[in-house]
UniProtKB/TrEMBL annotation:
<feature type="active site">
    <location>
        <position position="136"/>
    </location>
</feature>
<feature type="active site">
    <location>
        <position position="43"/>
    </location>
</feature>
<dbReference type="InterPro" id="IPR035909">
    <property type="entry name" value="CheB_C"/>
</dbReference>
<keyword id="KW-0145">Chemotaxis</keyword>
<dbReference type="Pfam" id="PF01339">
    <property type="entry name" value="CheB_methylest"/>
</dbReference>
<keyword id="KW-0378">Hydrolase</keyword>
<dbReference type="InterPro" id="IPR000673">
    <property type="entry name" value="Sig_transdc_resp-reg_Me-estase"/>
</dbReference>
<feature type="active site">
    <location>
        <position position="15"/>
    </location>
</feature>
<dbReference type="GO" id="GO:0008984">
    <property type="term" value="F:protein-glutamate methylesterase activity"/>
</dbReference>
<feature type="domain" description="CheB-type methylesterase">
    <location>
        <begin position="3"/>
        <end position="195"/>
    </location>
</feature>
<dbReference type="GO" id="GO:0006935">
    <property type="term" value="P:chemotaxis"/>
</dbReference>
<protein>
    <recommendedName>
        <fullName>protein-glutamate methylesterase</fullName>
        <ecNumber>3.1.1.61</ecNumber>
    </recommendedName>
</protein>
<dbReference type="GO" id="GO:0005737">
    <property type="term" value="C:cytoplasm"/>
</dbReference>
<dbReference type="GO" id="GO:0000156">
    <property type="term" value="F:phosphorelay response regulator activity"/>
</dbReference>
Length: 204
């Protein structure tokens, strides 16, 4: 039975410049009133100062915050980690930053987030794989779907055919929604807010 007192968690993974644009597009369409916690992992250099929060915040209707380790994650906010501290979800809607000075997780940080949401997100969770190379996110998305969450993937539109969306689609099990950023934003609104509030998502 669904726990209607628990928050929704929307976990988004992307990589590279195209992935950044995809995340910005989705955030621009999700309403400030969305009753969900949005968690974002974007592959980026670990040894450079990051301005990701400001870049995403400029496109987003909801605040974009850098999660503090052990802090409770609040509905109506989007969260990222620092470049070398990987964002994950813990029990009780708390965020945990996994410090990784030796880069043990390398390009598996989206899987890390998705698996944590699968473990602690209850049955009100959505995983979204956007543009990026290789296959980070595929295993974690399958785990999230197996745990009862919704899986969404950007429609593959460009070579190479071994990118994150293609690998997520081909890895294991069905995908609940495949589409462009606007399609995915509307699907998120539909799941979180219900059919009658889909109009809160602005058109692309």
């Amino acid at each position: 039975m669904e726990d209607y007192s628990a928050p929704w968690f929307v976990a988004i993974g992307a990589s590279g410049g195209k992935g950044l644009s995809d995340v910005q597009a989705i955030l621009s369409l999700l309403p400030r009133s969305l009753e969900a916690v949005v968690l974002i992992v974007l592959h980026r250099p670990w040894d450079h100062l990051s301005h990701l929060a400001g870049v995403l915040g400029g496109a987003s209707q909801m605040p974009v915050r850098i999660a503090a380790n052990g802090s409770r994650l609040e509905i109506g906010n989007a969260y990222i980690g620092e470049p070398g501290d990987h964002l994950t979800l813990a029990a009780g809607s708390f965020g945990v930053l996994v410090c990784d000075p030796f880069r043990r997780h390398r390009n598996r940080t989206i899987d890390l987030l998705f698996r944590s949401v699968a473990a602690h997100g209850g049955n009100r969770m959505i995983g979204v794989v956007l543009s990026g190379a290789l296959d980070d996110g595929a295993r974690g998305l399958a785990a999230l779907h197996e745990a009862g969450g919704l899986s969404m993937v950007l429609t593959p539109t460009e070579p190479p055919d071994c990118g994150m969306p293609e690998n997520a689609i081909n890895y294991d099990g069905p995908i609940d929604r495949i589409g462009n950023p606007s399609d995915i934003a509307f699907a998120i609104c539909e799941a979180v807010s219900g059919e009658d509030q889909r109009s809160d998502c602005r058109s692309a």
